[in-house]
Amino acid sequence: MSDQKLILVVDDDPDLVEAVSMKLESNNFRVAKAYDGVEAWDRIKEEKPHLMILDVMMPNKNGWEVCNEVKSDETYKDITVVLLTAVGDAVKSTSYTHHDGKTTLADDYIPKPIDLDKLMEIVKDYNE
Fold first, then answer.
1. Three-state DSSP state, 99
2. Tens digit of pLDDT for each residue in 79-118?
3. How many domains is the chain built from?
4. Which of 30, 46, 55, 85 has the greatest number of C-beta atoms within 10 Å?
């Protein structure tokens, strides 16, 4: 068993998943990947990550739903959830609201476009 922490990266943009994954791996984290909320749950059940970087706007199941389901589940509620969100700038053109963001149970969030160095600071803070 490796003492490297497993981080699940969930986003419907494969390029973003790859960029974030490469950054995490270069900092000695193990990475699992998923491309929508349903696939994210499959990975969570298979591997129980230590931390999840979770996009908000995704097909099949959005990040808020996944986050709230994880945080409401006794088995998985200790998984740290960092939401990725571009909603702040796009809220007028989406069905998401600021209320959704304020009522989520996420541990932290980072806006898109992602500053990978800032993201690494957040990840490292939760892994000390």
1. helix
2. 999 999 875 544 444 444 444 445 568 999 898 889 999 9
3. 1
4. 55
